[in-house]
User: Fold these one by one.
Assistant:
Number 1:
Amino acid sequence: MVDGGALEGQVALVTGAGSGLGAAIAHHLAEQGAHVVVNDVRADAAAAVAKDLVGEVAVFDVSDSAAFDAAVDTTVAQHGRLDVLVNNAGIVMDRPEVIKRLIAAQVAAMAGEAVAPLRVLSTLTDERFDRMLKVHVYGTFYGMRAALRHMEDARSGVIVNLCSVYAYGGSVASPEYAAAKHAIAGLTKSVGAEVAPLGIRVNAVAPGFIDTPFLDPLDDAKAFLLARIPVGRFGRAEEIAKLVRHIICDATYSFGEIFPASGGWLA
Ligand SMILES: NC(=O)c1ccc[n+]([C@@H]2O[C@H](COP(=O)([O-])OP(=O)(O)OC[C@H]3O[C@@H](n4cnc5c(N)ncnc54)[C@H](O)[C@@H]3O)[C@@H](O)[C@H]2O)c1
């Protein structure tokens, strides 16, 4: 136990907790005494994380509204409460051909040569745009709605959504990701104000680039990214998990706020 049980007796649901930030957050909440419901769309990944903490696995796709409702209702039926929801599940901007074009364009620009069209948005498919919004925006919406139905009755609860530095700035490489994270910021601020009078805290964290499997598709771009991070390194999942724990356990005067953790990234 790290600080000693601030969440003792409480129940937390963390989505996308089979990897990276979600797994680190699940562990930190468990260390605080929470019973953690470990969600992921990948059953094996969720099980691997859940075996090391007090909690259980809930395998579902956050973009499935009925499945999210059922998981929250089952949790409340079994444990009598849901105190914390972390809407963390996400998918990466994984178009390696776009990254290559962007790097080539930067090299050409630095050499004073003409830059070829990047064709990022003009080659973005309906399927990719839909999926990005379904997982991030709809997933966050479904989660908040399902949790608030119980938290409003209880007049207590904490929700943390995963934004990104791309919730403030644009992303040339992945406009659909930036659009999704901007939407989550809008949801967080709006709902945060709505339920503040009930004492329910809805906030978000906005990480920069954190060293998780999420960054794997960006391998070719890592040197370019590092050059833009003032602190000179990627963040660690642990650092974001500590911030999320702080928001949940300590940030009692924060409602609809977005907490950055970006290594100084200038969006
Ligand atoms: N790593 C970063 O640099 C970074 C920076 C800013 C924000 N974020 C955000 O943090 C969150 C977690 O990212 P990560 O770095 O831990 O990524 P990750 O790829 O390591 O983990 C994401 C997890 O979400 C799960 N998942 C994906 N789609 C799902 C779905 N539809 N339903 C349920 N689970 C699903 C995956 O199976 C995976 O286990 C994402 O929302 C991401 O956008 C990450």
Number 2:
Amino acid sequence: MDNGQKDSKLFSDLEYLGFNKTDNWELYGSNTAGPEKQAVKEVEENKEKTLLYEREVICPVCETRFNARAVKVSAARTVSKDSDFFIRYSVINPYFYDVWVCNSCGYASMKKDFEYIKEHQIEHIKKNITSRWRGRKYPETYDLDIAIERYKLSLLNYAVRNAKNSSKAMNCLKIAWMYRLKEDVESEQTFLLQTLEGLENAYYNEDFPMYGMDRFTTMYLIGELSRRTGNDEKAMQWFSKVITTTSVSPKLKDLARDQKDLIKFDHSHNDTDLSAPAAGEPAAEGSKKGFFRSIFRGL
Ligand SMILES: [Zn+2]
């Protein structure tokens, strides 16, 4: 029973006054927040607008000029960093503005890669994205749900243009982080697992640095994402590799030791046995069919 039906009973003795269709009347319903909360939201949105600027961009697919919203460098305030490098911000969240979307053709990408698209990839975008694109008007400021939608649109573009695994993985990681902010654990795990698959593949097949990460940082991140997705054995193997590689910085080794201790601590408290890590490099896992179909639902 929804609130409208439930609340209609509150007004049920007023039929004789002519109020006999009260099914959709709610006493509190969605207005509980009141006008004050709405006013606060507007003040926050107006404040956020002052922290943004418009940056002119030329779409490499259709050559349309458009203004992408960007966060002023001085605006972002870092609050903390999670163990998988997710940065938590106050005031404004730069992740929300990380994806640029060309509204003329549907081409979307994380801004770092936006210009870097090859001729044959452009053809894939035109054929598979532009032909279906209906356009979308976004509000002046973006929220978490919009950020997720834009990151997914970007990921769909990466899939269509057959981008590098590191790009797909990094895009998946950012979606996982957005779901972490949304406290949607299941979706976060789905995207962390996809990140892991792409990142392992990139680790073995691509050049470093990738997205600002060197080989050792990537090793650590693979370990940490394994830990976060419940594969402690694999996490221990990667952390051990970081710790025992001589040229790794002391800071990164400390991070790996901390996360290794965390696993040991969890296991000692859960009374579970953690078998010793096997020698050699951990193998990458196989791909999951149908994944792209399921994550792009709703676009
Ligand atoms: Zn375009």
Number 3:
Amino acid sequence: MIPNNSPWIQQLKRTRPVVSLDKNIASDVVIVGGGIAGAATAFFALRNTDKSIILIEAGKVAHGATGHNAGQVASYFERSLSGMIEEFGVEMAVNGQRSIESAWMLLDQIIVEAKLQTPLYKFTGYAGLSSFDQVVSHLKSNRYRVAHNLLQESIMLAENWDRLADVPSEHKSLYTIAPQADLLKLLETNNKDYIAALSYPKGCMNSTLFTEELIGYLMATYKNRFSFYEGSPMKKVELNKNEAVLEVLSHTIRAGKVILCTNGFENFTIQNNVGDEINTKFHHLVDGRIGYMAGYVQPLDQPPVAVSYFSKTKEIIKDPTGESYFYLTRRPYEYGGDTSYNLVCAGGPEKVLPNEAMYVPEESWEDAKNLIADFLRSNYGKHPKEDIEYSFYWHGLMGYTPNGIRRIGPESCNPILLYNLGCNGVGILPSIFGGQRIAKFLNGEDVEKSIFDPQDQVK
Ligand SMILES: Cc1cc2nc3c(=O)[nH]c(=O)nc-3n(C[C@H](O)[C@H](O)[C@H](O)COP(=O)(O)OP(=O)(O)OC[C@H]3O[C@@H](n4cnc5c(N)ncnc54)[C@H](O)[C@@H]3O)c2cc1C
């Protein structure tokens, strides 16, 4: 059996003991969930408000999706901008995209203010496209990006592509044409299926280390307003008119607001004692998928990069919210105390968890082995399957909201409850943006409507 062994958790050097809740306590705000969303929400809530904050985590900090991701920092959704415009209208969709782009700056702000040492590598990332529909969809979205001053994708099409003449002429100014060999070089592949290459700003970060460091900073900086408990799962939250009451271990936490940064809705119940019952159907719609990854170390002789590969066939899973793809990242990595390595990570295979089924973090990685090996063999030809000695295999749970957009904001049935959740494949920047947005709600600011508003029970 191949165990779940994340390279991000491997780098943790924590000395802090786990402190669990051992008494009844109260605060202005309680945040549930100690992943990057909970930590970022605590950062902005402490920084931008005068509230007292308790953060509780069922297990250990950053051991959920935050500890089992690809660590790629990217400001896009796992669905096309043009599709979002069809659903939400131009203004809302464009503002949503801009919000996620603004999180690059928020991430820098956290790193600078909290003096975090976790490296953030920023670079140009690439994506390879292999079908006509993929190309047209990206060009369509790019039109909106250009028109609304959003970060633009540079798009390069292969001069030998047999569908070049079919690309609608309205998109002509949005791409360049180049020999296929040039774009394959950018994509670091010899697979001639790719007939287009996109480039876009991306980054890489160990979000586990980042979150752990951030919590340490908050504990040291806000001694009088911040308390934090691990090994403290919330079993139930009761929502009253002016306060939430949480059952945690054999104790209670009372707070004016409760913010769920739990990635999903496993293992706890919500009881609303005021107004409509909260529709737990929405919660069941947060669709759990296991994402599988593998990583190997190489000499530190190439720069960091992130490349996504959209193949002709959707061989991973059928994805109703967008395209499925494989992805690869490379970044410097300290391995066995030696800093002369790059870590190359490959991911993409996903398994949908049947409704009501529980994710088991210890589950074997075996299921994805052949898919990742085939991907590396067919796309990253420098490394034939048998040559690779993986140092890490890991998987993590992604909670997908029905429309693929993170839920950030108050619950319409009772605004005492707020959400910053919905992993949706790309969640690092959305979690950080969500943290800042939640702080605005806590401050009582007039917060503009957005695509992130929990809409599930709005009448
Ligand atoms: C395989 C994989 C690859 C990914 N790749 C990327 C990527 O490259 N780039 C990117 O941006 N995003 C990526 N993501 C998504 C990203 O990692 C997540 O969106 C982000 O880490 C979510 O953070 P979170 O804090 O919302 O959730 P989590 O990190 O899962 O944290 C939620 C926390 O809540 C705690 N919790 C749950 N219930 C309770 C309870 N009742 N009481 C107390 N605590 C509770 C959990 O223990 C957990 O620690 C990936 C995810 C996976 C799984």
Number 4:
Amino acid sequence: MKTINVVQGPQNASAIILGCMRMPALSVDQAEKMIHTAVELGVNFFDNATCYTAGEAEERFGDAFRQSGIRREDVIIQTKCGLCFDRNEFDWTKENILSSVDDSLRRMKTEYLDVLLLHRPDLIFEPEQVAEAFETLEKAGKVRYFGVSNVPTLQMELLRKFVRQPLVFNQLQFSLEQSQLIDQALYLNNKTTEMAVDRDQGTLDYCRLHDITIQAWSPLQYGFFKGCFVDDPNFPELNRVLGEIGEKYGVPKTAVAIAWILRHPAKMQAIAGTMNPDHLRDICEASRVELTHHEWYQLYLAAGKYLP
Ligand SMILES: NC(=O)c1ccc[n+]([C@@H]2O[C@H](COP(=O)([O-])OP(=O)(O)OC[C@H]3O[C@@H](n4cnc5c(N)ncnc54)[C@H](OP(=O)(O)O)[C@@H]3O)[C@@H](O)[C@H]2O)c1
């Protein structure tokens, strides 16, 4: 498994993360098998969130991890807070961040989180409150590293003005089909295409400039949770090229789609959401593949993008 040393963050972190959003669909025994499979494949990083099935994903992970007998120090456990669907609000207040972390620790049956991310912007967040919360959590030994998710450039800048701890991750949607993160760079200032629209204030370049590692969520999905594009007949050209390149390297199509993300020089991680051990095995084959410059573009174009 490819690993990355995150600047001012976790070392030897696997390039592929297991996302636990769909874990409530599994029994504790099945979840334990999923975790064991991940670790055997070299995946040592697990992503969760307080809002995934109202805490059930954290709970299931915690029960399964405890049952697995895997040593706590051998894995990197990350969760996210701030999306309070039960209250119909997003909440980055100090009070909510602190109580969310306590709930997550309890559900996941762990003494500390390796990483805490703020999940999606609270429209009325006060950076001073975030700073106080992070300070308290770090001092109490409850959280080691901090980051954000779905947060654009100027909000990261605003946080960094007040928060002492480095923001080491930004978790963002990115896949061959949902590639807005990179598309706009091709069409700067162009009035003739949607691809020119600046949707995120240059978040990718900002993250690279400030050593913030991007974690790509839903790396195999099209649209907003519409389904997996691999082997979907609506994406014939993409699947043809995925298959052709997969054959060359002797790996499945899903591995090629993930290798496309890992090939980006920003050194992103990809968060696989599968809850099928065989699918995860396929996906992890990505680690064996280093796409050529030309193959990377072939895939980009096969996903329906075009060059100016
Ligand atoms: N920060 C955020 O706002 C945010 C938002 C969404 C997600 N996330 C994180 O990202 C993780 C991944 O998200 P995701 O689950 O949407 O990502 P994904 O890995 O792109 O999609 C997973 C889906 O693809 C299917 N799949 C995988 N391999 C397949 C194959 N070979 N054939 C057919 N279907 C296949 C899976 O089904 P099987 O289980 O049957 O394989 C599952 O339904 C989540 O768990 C969560 O941790 C973060």
